[in-house]
Amino acid sequence: APNNAILAVTGNISFEEAVELTEKWFGTIERRDIEPRNLPAEPVQKSARFQEVSRSVPLDSITKVYHMCRRMDKEYHCFDLLSDILSNGRSSRLFQRLVICRSSAASDVYKRQLFMIKGKVNKGISLEEADRAIVEELRRLGENEVSAYELQKVVNKFESNDLFSNINYLNKATN
Predict the structure, then answer these.
(1) What is the pLDDT of residue 72?
(2) 93: CB partners within 8 A, 6+ apart
(3) Are the beta carbons of 127 and 91 closer than 8 angstroms?
(4) How far is residue 102's CA from residue 52's CA, in Å, rounded to a whole number?
(5) Which among 55, 70, 81, 83 is placed 20 to 30 Å from 113, CA to CA?
(6) Is the pLDDT of residue 37 over 60?
(7) The model scores a pTM over 0.90
(8) Pairing state of beta strands 103-110 and 60-67?
């Protein structure tokens, strides 16, 4: 429904022409009542939960998920930034401290208030060792300030990715 839609227009087109074409193609679509999304909140967790699944695959993997704030909370962007500090690029903390020595790892922020760290564990490294290494890195992150240099690297990478992602019209409209 038009009252629950976003239209992005990019390219060599004037505002007036964009409005005219929008009204031509979408103007007859009626407004509708839209049920608000009511995503259930995760229950409060009192302790860690574990699940181990065994399959015949070349490498073990580990996934750790933590609760975090909602998408519209001001702290959300801090988690997004922490995710980049931990795992965005070859100079990130998890890459430097875990990948080279132990495993490949990544972290990400999800809309359902989850902060996820996952990785493939190299042969000869137990899941317990990988878990301890991740927990240790999170402990370091919590106890020590992020250096101005490390923060600037993440900001520079974001700005570079943002700039290059807007080179073509489709990406610009999507962004």
Answers:
(1) 81
(2) 85, 86, 87, 137, 140, 141
(3) no
(4) 20
(5) 55
(6) yes
(7) no
(8) unpaired
Name the token pair of 49: 């939960």
Residues 86-101: pLDDT tens digits?
Answer: 887 777 888 777 764 5
Confidence class of residue 103 from pLDDT cuts 50, 70 and 90? Answer: low
Query: Which of 53, 86, 75, 78 shows the shortest CA–CA distance to 153?
Result: 86
Residue 164 one-letter amino acid: F
Burial 46-71 (b: 16+ CB within 10 A, else e): eeeeeeeeeeeeeebebebeeebeee
Three-class DSSP category at 132: helix
Q: Which of 91, 85, 101 is nearest to 144 (CA)?
A: 85
- The four Cα atoms 149, 155, 156, 158 give a dihedral, to 10 degrees, of 150
Residue 23 confidence (pLDDT): 93
DSSP structural state of residue 96: I
Strand, coil or helix: what is 89? coil
Output the six-digit token pair for 137: 């890195």
Per-residue confidence (pLDDT) for residue 165, from 0 to 100: 80
- Cβ–Cβ < 8 Å for 68, 93: no
